[in-house]
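Page header: ASSEMBLY MODEL / four components / 684 residues total.
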Amino acid sequence: MPSPSSEKTKLVDVAKRAGCSPATVSRVLNNNPKVGRNERERVLKAAAELGYVPNGSARALRSTRSRLVGTIIPTLDHAIYAIMVSGLQARLAEGGVSLIMNTSSYDLNMEYEQARLLVERGVETVVLVGSEHKSETIELLQRDRIGYVFTYTCHATGDAAAIGFDNKKAGVTAANYLHSLGHRTFGMIAGITNGNDRARERRDGFLAGLASLGIGKESIGVVEARYDLGSGKQAMQALLQLYPDLTAVFCGSDIIAAGALKYCQSRGIRVPEDLSIIGFDNLEIATLTSPELTTLEVPAREMGTLAGEYALTGPEERHLMRERELDVRLIVRSSSGAAKSV
Amino acid sequence: MPSPSSEKTKLVDVAKRAGCSPATVSRVLNNNPKVGRNERERVLKAAAELGYVPNGSARALRSTRSRLVGTIIPTLDHAIYAIMVSGLQARLAEGGVSLIMNTSSYDLNMEYEQARLLVERGVETVVLVGSEHKSETIELLQRDRIGYVFTYTCHATGDAAAIGFDNKKAGVTAANYLHSLGHRTFGMIAGITNGNDRARERRDGFLAGLASLGIGKESIGVVEARYDLGSGKQAMQALLQLYPDLTAVFCGSDIIAAGALKYCQSRGIRVPEDLSIIGFDNLEIATLTSPELTTLEVPAREMGTLAGEYALTGPEERHLMRERELDVRLIVRSSSGAAKSV
DNA sequence: CGGATTTAAGAAAACGTTTTCTCAAGCATA
DNA sequence: TATGCTTGAGAAAACGTTTTCTTAAATCCG
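Prediction written out in full:
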């Protein structure tokens, strides 16, 4: 039965009931070893009886440890970020740390505003997506000595740690794979590259990979699309209109690939017989389409878990985790196949 | 250029630079009207020059307004919750409020733990999913006079507001629809109903709807499945093994329906010719399968937005938004059709 | 057994704001 | 001109913890 008083019980109340000083209560609650067995038990008993819940603001104010971590992702509507956040939150919760979540809608100015809010809330670490950010954002974090991690990229810069994968390398992998199937004219539906280094690097990697295989620019068509089904469809239409001969398309995301696939189906273009399509991310939806999507697997949950791990690690040992490159595996399914022999 | 000093700038620093008292700075920063034009401008200028960011903990401690809202959802891996949170976060951000996000893995004990953490962080409102919770959880919130809202349900109970829809009614809608197509033997793949009132009510609504149409229990098979593709597949297999004659299946989620559909395809069962399948949620994936899924549309984002609205509304006016029932629309696509004439 | 060292616990200061209280100045009214 | 009222601004208390500084008691060692 909770306390009869209608006032919120605070640390002094616990102290009174346990018959000791507030300092002792504080020490017990923070597992400070310098306190005797009996005192400790009395305090714990009193706290439980009163249903005491510490005041996080007061604690944070005095100790400068807020037990708060912030993240700013582009959107929660795209499963690839939701899954990362899922991993992040789960790991943080294990450590008793809470996660403040914000979205930027792929807008770096908005990201800056959200970062300001996070700093104001006193977060100890900020988890960001990608390595491209406003300089103001980075300065803000540096100035307050807040740790920050980039994800979905593995290039640590300045104070930033990076936990992710090599987007460029992944683009090269896609190029090599499609080329190995005999394709010689290619299309790519990239994500919007403005303000998005991941989308840009995937595209550049794909182009570089093809270049080093001797494929010239004239055999490659590139368009950009937002990350949703409709945009994928439209982009596919536009791409085929501009480059009717291409036989293989690399999409910057499974969502885009699914949209592209839908467009093909609506036009009677057979996949993979007429056209190979591969995606990126390996979301659950990749196995829902028919044919199922060949794609590159992004370790989204693992990035989140590791970012959480990073945030839980003390500032002294963090440098050991400064840069972590995870693998991007090629998952071959049935949306890709050998090029038509002409 | 940020302050040359390496110490974090605080309110007194701004006061010094503006040549006024801390109280005045505080008033300006909180838009207190009782401060003259020139003072106000001087303060704002000083704050900007110093790159001042207020300390949220101190502010929260003194004013008892944390500008923090918490939510506990079952998981972020299921898009239906991710989308709700997306709407919630977006609305809160507009009001300058931050969101702390936690997951419970459909476990009410875990939910309680997370709630404790939220109380400790000083959140002003908690957004929960469904109306079934541990009594300890509710008591905890009531005791600290923290506002709380249930979502995905429209039954307000006690202090709780509810913003959602009528799961039972939705189940009835499904029953009526399938019956109207001529089906007379039914299956349902419900979500796990233990600790999940939404899943339970959908099932009960479906059964009640069929009952009032004169369909007896012997013509209805029910199994439960977790919310993922594989479970949907398995459940479909189990269902057909137990009840080989059924011609229509209502699934508790589009994910489950997609899995069920996949199973049918693997077994050469034609949908909708041999079997009608309908889902729940109307996620993006419902249009990715072939055939596309008939489903019931859950207003996930709107629930989030409205819950955010509720949280931003002062305690005095909240009672006006105590219960809000949103519509669940039936979206007919091609996974459902007339029953086979025998 | 006495002095030095360790240990456990309390008193009080501190964290960075907001808010209450107080006061001075300006203004209108009589 | 004196009185009362309004307005703008400062001084200081307060929010609920943690932490530093002290001190009293307990332990050790020669």
